[in-house]
Structures are given as C-alpha cells and as structure tokens.
Amino acid sequence: MKVILLSSLLAVAAAPAVLAQAPAHAVVKAKTKTAGQPSVKTKTRTAVRPAEPEAPIPVADAAVVDAKANALTANMQKNLGLNPQQTEKVRAINRRSIDAVESAHLRYKTDPRKLAGVVESVSSSRLSAIKDVLTPAQFDKYQRKREEKMGVPNVQGVQGTPPPGLGGGGAGDQ
C-alpha cells in the first residue's frame, strides 16, 4: 500500500517534467480488471498538446521611462536645489519607480485593484528612498509640493481650530 502511494506521489510530482519532454504523440497504457474477469491491457495513442506558453512580463519602453525620469528629476533639481550627487541618486530612484509603474500599467491594465496596489507600493518605497537622499529642509519642501499637487490637506489644517459649531472640547461648546 505504501509503495503504491509513494509511486503515485512520485508520478504526480514528475508529471510536469515528463510532459515538458514528451513527444508529439504519447502512448497511454491502462490495465483494468473487473471482479472475476481476467485483466485487460490497452494501449492508446493520443496527441499531446504543447504546453501553453506563459505570457511574458511586459517591459516598459526604456526611452519613455528615461524621458519621464529625466523630466521629473530636472523639475525636482530646479525646485529643491539638488546638488549633483543628489541629482544622480534621485534620477536612479525616479527611473526605477517609473519603470515599475509603467510595467505595472502594462501588466495589470485589466485589473485596476492590483494596479493600484503596485502603484501604492512603488510610491511608498520611492518616498522612503527620496527621504534618505534629501536634506530635511528639502524633504519638507518636497512634501509640501507633493501634498499641494495631490490635493492632500496639510497637517496644520487638520490639527488647527475646528470649524464653528463642530466643537473642540472648549468651555463654550454645549
């Protein structure tokens, strides 16, 4: 019983490798035995379909990625006053990020949820990498510009005085 179980597990595990090397036609051998009857051996020739090739991972156009990365880097250099070392580091970060996002657009164009997840992940890793390159003053300026562009409310507006009538826990609210 153990031998049969082990041999069937081995056959299942080896099946993909065998199928990859199988000829155009395969011979399937079967042995059946019904109760009280002699066993019957059969051989059947079947055509083997070639395995479906995996879809290649789409790659973004390098010229487009370079153009976008260079434009973004030039804008950051002008607005943040990057030195040459920072400029090259930021250019590499921007290129990696844009390449990842462009490839994700090609790969997940039919799955917006996965696309959004990949873009969010790339964005957060890019932000962290940029923070490591910029000075604190440059990063603060970058964050302010980024928040303005993305329409994110700034921290002072969120933590400031509440609008009239909404109460802020003061003595006049009842």
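[next item in queue]
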Amino acid sequence: MNIDYTERLKPATDDFMTIHLADQGEGPSLRHCTHDYQVSCGNCRLASICLPLALEQDDIQQLDNIIQRSKPLQKNQHLYREGDEFQSVFAVRSGTLKAYKTTDDGREQVTGFYFPGEILGMDGISSNTHASSAKSLETAAVCEIPFTSLEKLSALMPSLQRHFFQLMSREITEDQQLITLLSKNSADERVASLMLSISTRNARRKLSATQFRLPMSRVDIGNYLGLTVETVSRVFSRMQKMDVLKVDNKEIEILDLEDLRGMANLGS
C-alpha cells in the first residue's frame, strides 16, 4: 500500500518518534552518536509522546532500525535549508529549533518553533524540496527518519501510518489557528497564546507548565507573531504588572493560568 501525503503549509507541532542525532547541510556523512548512544525508541523518555500507543515492541525495534544517527546540532546550525532536497523527516530529541522562510527581499520569516518530541521537515513531502529552513536555537539533538524507509514501514504498520496522518492533520489545524491569530488577534492575545502553547508542550513532556525558559529571542517571538520587538517587550511588562507572568529576561513563570487564558481569548 502506497502512502499519498498531502502538501504542508508550514511546520509546528507535537510528537513523533525520537532518538538519534542528525546533522545535515554542514556535512553529508552520518556517524553513530557518541552522546547518549544507549537511547533507543524503546527506552526513550519521549516515547509516550512520539510513538503510536498501539505499536508492539517488535514494531518499535523495526522503527528504531531505520533511524539514522549523527552528532548534535550546535546553536544557529541548520538542519536543512529552504530548497534542499527532501529526504527525511526529523524528530527533536533535545533542544529547540525554529523553522523560517526567506522573503523575496531577503528577510527571515519565522514559521514555527519545535520542542522535544515534535516532528519537522514535512514541508518537503509534496514537492520533494524543503519549503522552509530549520535552524537550532541552542544545542539540539534530533532523530532523522528517512522518508522512503518510513513510507515502506508505515505500509506494514497501519497504526504508524495513522499516527503520521494525525500529525499532519494537527499541523494543518495549527496552521489555520496561526493564520487566525495573526489576522485578527491583538498583541496581548498573540503573546498569551504563545506562552500557553509552550506551557502545554512542556506539560506534555512532564515538565513544569508554569515555569520555563524561553529558547527563542524577543526578535524571533516578534517575527513569528507579527509584532515588533518593542511591542513584545511592552506586552511582557504589562503581563508582569498584572501579576499574570513573572518575567526575568528569558525565564518565565505563569502566576495566573486562568488570566493568561483569558488574555489569549481561549476560555478555560
């Protein structure tokens, strides 16, 4: 059974499989990872996020066998660039990456942030070339899953195929939500929505939903949300005065989750 995946607009979501490290663009060779080399899909702490719950141990081993390993990405290093040939999808194991497109006048437009357990690179499925670039915001480890191998394996594992379709569906939904956010919502609603998104993604990884460090700069936040850096800073200051957030440079503490939801206009 062949899999026909639909075109993607942009990356940005949660889950998939994990484990190894990939380093593309800076060197074509793949080497076995000497960092955290004992981790596999079967014992990875992110498995509950990334893997379909219905996969049996033998299936997990087959999936583990197709994943390629290499060294970690360093800060500001590219995983892939816009226009690169599409060969693999990637799951973030540690660290954070951002996806961005380059505008006609050479400016960078951030289209998404990726946290551990989240998958990126699906923007290349339709045209066989990546429609955006992906760059690490800090030292990051990723799992590289060659798409041809994943396609063949998915045909043998209906639960894996269904899981991948669910990921793509979730990305389409989040694309639509981002379009709505940028077209209609105020600056306060945009920033509050991003803070809630990060909170939810942290909770999914069993980390604190109310205390976290922002891996991205104010410039990247403003770029992603369609706001100036000055506006982002003013919104953070306003939220701090309202005792909704405690902000210390990149350190964030959510003091009132319900008020933050209210500012995001999401309800409880």
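[queue empty]
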